[in-house]
Write a structure and sequence with these properties.
The protein contains nine helices and twelve strands. The chain is an alpha/beta fold. The relative contact order is 0.16. It is found in: Cell membrane.
C-alpha cells in the first residue's frame, strides 16, 4: 500500500499541497485529470522522495525517504512518458532493468538472462533483441521499454501516459498487456489522458483537478457522481455489452 499523508510535492515550489491518498496493492489504478493538474507530479512524489517538501509518502507504512535508491528500484518499475532513445540493441536495453540486482560491475547472471528472455517473450519483443531501439516504430519501442520495466521484477508498475504517441493498434496491445500484468499479480498505477481507455481499463479511478484529488473510487462510483463530466466539461454515455463497458464521450455544447 502507498499512502500520502498531507504531502506537498513539487520541483521548486509545491504543485500538490496537503495531498492525502491511499493506493492499495492489486489491480489497475488510473489517474486522470486535465493537463497540468499534477498527475505526473504525484507519481514523481513516489519515485523521488526529495520532491516531497512537507508531509509523508509511505510504502508498507515505511516512509519512502528512508529507502535507498536501490531499494526503491526493487519496489517500483517506472515507464516515463518521454525518455532518451538510445542506439543500443533491444535485449541490451531490457537487460538494464536488472541493474538493481547486479553489483558495481553490472555482471549479468543466468537468472538475469532468464528473466530478460522471459519478459521479452511476454511483451512479444524477442524479435527485437538484436534490433537497434532507435530504429523501431513507436509501438515496438514502447513494448521494449515496458519489457525493461518488467525485468526489474517489481510488485508496483508505474506508467506515465503509456499509450501516448502510439497508433491505435499499438495502444490496444499495450492496454491488453497491462490487463495481463494485473492478472499476474502486478499492481499498476498509471496516468492516462484518454478517458475512454481509462474507463475501460481501470479497477479504480483517481480524479485530479487543479493540484488536488477530486475523487477516488470504482469506475461505476465515479460515473454515478457525474464527476468526470464536471471536471472535463464533457458528456459521457456508457454502452454495456457482454460484460464490457463502451464509453461514448462528447464535448459540452
Amino acid at each position: 500500500m502507498i499512502r500520502f499523508e498531507n504531502a506537498s510535492i513539487g520541483y521548486h515550489e509545491p504543485i500538490l499541497k496537503a495531498l492525502n491518498l491511499t493506493i492499495k496493492k492489486g489491480g489497475i489504478h488510473v489517474i486522470v485529470g486535465p493537463n497540468g493538474c499534477g498527475k505526473t507530479t504525484m507519481m514523481k512524489g513516489i519515485l523521488t522522495p526529495s520532491m516531497v517538501s512537507e508531509g509523508k509518502v509511505l510504502l508498507a507504512e515505511r516512509e519512502l525517504n528512508t529507502y535507498t535508491l536501490n531499494e526503491r528500484a526493487k519496489c517500483f518499475a517506472y515507464l516515463p512518458q518521454t525518455r532518451p532513445i538510445p542506439h543500443i540493441h533491444g535485449k541490451t536495453l531490457v537487460g538494464h532493468g536488472r541493474y538493481p540486482y547486479q553489483g558495481f560491475l553490472r555482471s549479468s547472471t543466468q537468472q538475469d538472462r532468464s528473466i530478460v528472455d522471459q519478459v521479452m517473450a511476454q511483451t512479444q519483443t524477442t524479435r527485437f533483441a538484436h534490433e537497434y531501439v532507435d530504429e523501431l516504430s513507436g509501438g515496438q519501442r514502447q513494448r521494449v521499454f515496458l519489457a525493461m520495466a518488467l525485468a526489474q521484477n517489481c510488485e508496483w508498475l508505474l506508467l506515465d501516459e503509456p499509450t501516448t504517441y502510439l497508433d491505435f493498434t499499438s495502444q490496444l496491445e499495450v492496454m491488453q498487456l497491462i490487463k495481463t500484468l494485473k492478472e499476474q499479480g502486478k499492481t499498476i498505477l498509471l496516468t492516462l489522458h484518454d478517458l475512454s481507455q481509462a474507463l475501460q481499463l481501470a479497477d479504480e479511478l483517481i480524479v485530479m483537478n487543479d493540484g488536488r484529488i477530486e475523487a477516488q473510487g470504482s469506475v461505476d462510483q465515479i460515473l454515478a457522481d457525474h464527476l468526470l463530466e464536471r471536471v472535463f466539461h464533457i458528456r459521457i454515455k456508457i454502452f454495456n455489452e457482454n460484460e464490457k463497458r463502451y464509453p461514448f464521450i462528447e464535448a459540452e455544447v
